[in-house]
Every structure is written in structure tokens, then in C-alpha cells.
Amino acid sequence: MVDTASIVRAFDPRESKLNLLLIAVPMTVYFNYFAHDANISFITSMIAIMPLAFLMGKATEEIALRTSESVGGLLNATFGNAAEIIICVLALLTAYEAGVGTETAEIMINIVQASLIGSILGNLLLVMGLSFVWGGIHHSEQKFSETQVSSNGSLLLLSVIVLIIPTVFNFTVDGSAGDDGVEKLSHAAAIILLAIYGFFLLFQLKTHSHLFATENVHHEEPQMDQKDAIVLLIIATVMVSWMAEILVHSVESAAEEYHLPYLFIGVILLPLFGNAAEHFTAVSVAAKNKMDLSFAISIGSSTQIAVFVAPLMVVIAWILNLPLTFEFGILETIAVFLAVTIANLTAADGKSNWLEGLMLLATYAILALAFYFHP
User: Fold this and answer.
1) What CATH number is given to the structural domain containing 274?
2) What are phi and psi of 2, to 5 degrees?
3) pTM for this prediction
4) Does the CA dihedral 296-151-192-114 come out positive or negative?
């Protein structure tokens, strides 16, 4: 039997200060359905997604504590970027409803591409940078698994190749033949990336799990029954989907009202709010010198976006007959290449300090400004 009190307690601000932001949920409902103010509902829906994503993560962790390490890791991999997946899928469905070739469809496809790029940049530069700085303030030097750096770094470099090749291909082939070729290339690359991600999970969670094991995994006692955790996960997922739908449908109005480029909204704002709960966890555990866990969250999430979520979105768009490809644009592609390069170089020695964190944050700030001023 489901313990309602346990689920209600999960929403209590005394359990987590982040739950205070749940006030944004009724505010979004009011501004969207009663005040009909898309500009305000855009802001409140973004804020509402933060605590709801945190509750999804909490429920997933509770379920994972009762499973094997392999299944627990797979659950966290699947639901870690759930808010991002929901936003992207809803944007693709909005594009499908608007019809291929319409302005709305083009905007939604651009938002999806920008959001995927932004998640990779945010996790690699912002989250890892904050973790290095905050951890470095409390500890002069911190260490983490070099195996995580090499395996995740190699996968990220593969994803950068997948971004670069379609962009170069499109510049070397003119006309409709180039567009058609980029689509076919993207579809094939998406299938290959999904297969590689599956093998990566097998490597990380099964055949070589000992290389990724940390001291702090699965030593916590569950705080909720499994049924309660599943119910909480369903409730939080439904509410995230609801807020994401309002967010997606208010993007065009808010961009015009606040004079924000769609590229900036997709690359900076959506990933920042959608993954905020995960970001907070990575930074807070870094202060406790649990850098393996912090690093796994930051670079692991980037890997999931690049090698799982991005190709999944291309496949879904393929099914919906939408022209979503891996040609994300010159600025976006170069930004990801630079982010992966500096993150790999910074973390290659398996050590971190606050100065390295500041360098990552400086890189993120420069790229954020570039996307803000991009026409």
C-alpha cells in the first residue's frame, strides 16, 4: 500500500530548500491558464522544472538503492536527463503539429539542437567548473578516477566527430543533395551512437564495473518504500511534462518580449534550469571531497546527452519526418569541440583545484556571451 505521508514529505521544503521553488508550479498554472501571460509563464515554468527534476532524481535514487549496482546505474543514466528529454520531445511534437517548413517548426528544431548543445556545455564547463572551485576552496587538491576521464572523454570526442562531419559535409556539397545527404548521414550516425552507448553501459556497469566503483555508492539506507518512490517518480515526471509543455509553447512569445535570441534560450537557459538539481548535487558533493561522484555526474551527464539523448532525438525526429540533423551550426560545433578539449585537458591528470575550475567557468562565460550576442 502506498504511504501518502511519505510522498507528501518529499515535497516538504524542510526536506530540501529547493522545494521552496515548487511555488512556481501554481504560479505557472495561473499565468498560463487564467492570466494568459505567456511571458511570465515562460519564466515560472522554467523555475518550476528545477525542484520537480530534483524530486525525479530523489525517487530514482530511492529505487536504485534496492537494485543491483548495474540496474541502479542504468536507472540514473535514464532519468538523470529526463527533464531535458521531455523538453526536447515536446518541442519536436510541437514542430510536428505546426508542420514541416513552418516558422514554428524551424524554431522548435533549433531549440532542440541548441538545448542539446547547451546541456553538454553546461555540464562540462559550468558544473565541472563550479565543482572544482567549490571543492578546491575546501580542499587544496582533489583526486578522481582517471578511468572515468579516459572512457567518457573518448565518447565525448566521438560525439564531437559526429557533430563536425555533417557540418563539413554540408559545406562541401551544395543544394538539396547536401541536405539529403546530411539527413541520411545523421540517421546512420544516430544509430551507431546509440549502439556505442549501449556497449558503454555494458562496459561501465557489467564487464568493467570495478574500474568505476566508488567508495560512496550504495551505502545509504532507503528512506521510502519502493512503491512510494515509483509513485513519486510518476507524479514528478507528469508535472515536469506539464511544465515543459507550457515552457515550450511560451518560448516564441518570451523570446520576442525579452529580446532573447533563440540560440541563447536553448543553449543557456533551458539546460541551466532543467539540470539545476543535478548541478547542485555535483557541486555539493565536491565540497565533501567526493570527487568521483561529482565528476561522474558532470561528465557522465554530458556523455549521456551526447551519445544517448542527442541521437535519440534525431531518431524520434526521423520517425516524425522532421529535418533534425547533427548539423548544429558552426558556432555550436566549435563551442562543443572547445569545451570537450579543455575539459579533457583539465581533467587528464585525475586531479583538480580551484584555479582549474575558474578556467572552465571563464570558458563557459565567454561562450554564453557569444550565444547571447549571436543574431
Assistant:
1) 1.20.1420.30
2) -75, 130
3) 0.85
4) positive
